[in-house]
Amino acid sequence: MGKALQLTRVRAGYGPTVVLEDVDLSLSEHGSLAVLGRNGVGKTTLLATIMGHTTFHAGSIEYQERPIMRLPVYERSRLGIGYVPQTRDVFPSLSVEENLRVAALPGRWTVERVYELFPRLAERRRHMGNQISGGEQQMLAIGRALMGSPSLLLLDEPLEGLAPMIVDVLLKVVQRLIREEALAVILVEQSAKLALGVATEALVLSRGRVIHHGPSAELLADPARLTNLVVAG
Predict the structure, then answer these.
(1) Which CATH number does the domain housing residue 61 bear?
(2) What is the pLDDT of residues 65-85, one digit of tens each?
(3) 64 secondary structure, DSSP code
(4) Residue of 81, 97, 228, 233 with fewest CB within 10 Å of its CB?
C-alpha cells in the first residue's frame, strides 16, 4: 500500500515563529491517524501546515509521493486534500445547498451523496448558513470538504462543543468514511479515547515535537501511559 502523506523533519509556524520542530509523520493510503496532545502543542498548526496555511521553514511534505510544500492551498485542495478547520468557515449568507455546490469538484461526491450521509442537511437545504445549529454547521463543513472528492481528509476538532447525540452521529460518519469510503483521515481531537476508537494510528505532540507514534490499540490498552503522554507530555 502506498503513502497518502509523508512529512519529513518539518519545521513550520507563523512568520518567523516556529511551532512545529522536526515533525515526521507517515500515513498510508486509506489509513487513519489521531493527533493528540494538550492545548497549544501544535495540533492545529500541523493540519494547517499540511494544507498550506502556515509559514514553511524546512523539511518536506509529500502527498501521494509528490512534494507539495511549495504549492498554494487551492492546488493542494485540487490534488485531493480536504480540510475541515476548527472554525468551520460556513458561508453564513449562502444556503446549505449553495455552501455544498460552491465547493464541488468532479468526482464521486455529489450533493445527493452528502445528503445521504447527513440526512439532517437535506432537511435544512434551503436554510442559510447562519440559520442552522452548531452541529449542523459541522456536518455542513464536513460535507463541503467531501464535495471536493478528497482522498485525504483533515479534521480539526470536529466534535468540540457539540451535544453527545451529534458527537455520536459525527463519529459514525468518520468511521464510515474510513472503513467504507476508503479515505485517509487525520483527526485532531481533545478526547483521546474517542479519537483512538476511530483512528487506527495515534500521534502525540508536545511543544511542537512528536513524542509518540504507534497503533491506537496500544494506547487504549494502557490508560496510564496514554494519560502520561497526553496530559504530562
Answers:
(1) 3.40.50.300
(2) 999 999 999 999 999 999 999
(3) T
(4) 228
Strand (E) or helix (H) holding 20: strand 17-28
Q: What stretch of H or E contains 168?
A: helix 164-179
Torsion angle in degrees (nearest 10) through CA of 175, 173, 148, 82 = -60
pLDDT in tens, 180-206: 998 999 999 989 999 999 999 999 999
State whether residue 9 is helix, strand or coil: strand
Q: Which cell numbers hold the place of 220?
A: 487504549
15-26: pLDDT as tens digits? 999 999 999 999
Q: What angle do CA 170, 93, 104 make, to 5 degrees?
A: 60
Give the residue numbers spanning the domain of 17.
Answer: 3-231
- The backbone region for 180, taken as left when phi is positive above 0, alpha when psi lies in -120 to 50, beta otherwise, is alpha
Q: All 3 cell numbers of residue 159? A: 466534535
CA 88 to chain centre: 11
Residues 155 and 32: their CA atoms lie apart, in Å, by: 11
Residue written as grid cell 445547498: 97
